[in-house]
Structure prediction request, 101 residues.
Amino acid sequence: MAKTSSVEKNKKVRKTVKRYAAQRKALKDLIMDQDKPIEERFRAQLKLAALPRNSAKVRIRNRCEVTGRPRAYYRKLGMSRIALRDLGSVGAIPGLVKSSW
Prediction:
């Protein structure tokens, strides 16, 4: 089980990303627009840099929904390999059978 503080910190980052997503997208579009004057694009770049660091999407860490484990994460299922195996062994995931031979 992951530390509760790490899981809560990641939830806080997700909330911050969601709050600033539209503002970041508008600034990035303005920066990438080659038709705008360079001064205006530079001002937009300064505004983007002034936003909180945790508002960037790359700061989010994918964590297992069951255990909070940060590694061996399956995006499609939203959980780690260990949690997937445990739930598969008890038959909690339909269609998944732990192989044995």
In short: The chain has two domains: 1-61, 63-94. The mean pLDDT is 93.
